[in-house]
Write a structure and sequence with these properties.
The protein is an alpha+beta fold and 182 residues long. The chain has 4 helices and 13 strands. It folds into 2 domains: 117 residues, Alpha-Beta Plaits; 47 residues.
Length: 182
């Protein structure tokens, strides 16, 4: 009886059936997000690969195309103990994780992304920046300056230090003007 219930649960991967289903990020080959998503759905898994619309200029016309917000990744909800069907999807490379295996993504993060995409507002990818990170200003009168990103009361400030003098100065910068340094 227990084996029959277990087999039923394995045949229906998107249903709970007593198993813990979590979100994971599946890394896929370049431009395989759509293909992987279709195959995951055909296999009965819940998948999510948000897109945004961008206007591209060709030599003779402008065209609106859809691009993936997280290029190279598809989010999928499944039981981590049943990952083989996920990894055999066309274009699948690996599950994103750390040294001890794939890392689950909290439901609230996926829900937040879904809410942003479905809001109707302009959504586009953005480089991940955190306070304390070294950045380069790309636009404006400070273009070309490198420094440390600091946040004070939700205002981004760039701190440039002179190590020899052990002194620093800071300036307020627009979020759009900086990019992270690797």
């Amino acid at each position: 009886m227990i084996i029959k219930e277990l087999n039923t649960a394995l045949d229906h991967p998107s249903s709970e059936n007593g198993f813990d289903l979590s979100w994971f990020a599946l890394r896929v080959r370049s431009n395989f997000e759509r293909v992987a998503g279709v195959h995951l759905e055909e296999r009965g898994y819940e998948q999510f690969s948000p897109t945004f619309t961008v206007e591209r200029q060709w030599s003779d016309r402008k065209k609106r195309i859809e691009q993936h917000v997280f290029a190279g990744y598809v989010f999928c909800r499944f039981n981590i103990n049943q990952r083989l069907p996920i990894l055999t999807v066309p274009g699948a490379v690996s599950l994103v994780g750390f040294g001890d295996g794939p890392a689950a993504i909290p439901d609230r993060e996926i829900d937040s992304i879904r809410q942003m995409v479905s809001s109707g507002l302009l959504v586009s990818p953005w480089p991940f920046l955190s306070t304390g990170q070294r950045v380069l200003i790309e636009k404006g009168p400070l273009a070309g300056i490198e420094g440390l990103l600091v946040s004070i009361k939700k205002i981004f400030r760039l701190v440039v230090s002179v190590n020899m003098l052990q002194r620093s100065i800071s300036v307020e910068v627009d979020r759009e003007a900086v990019r992270p340094l690797l």
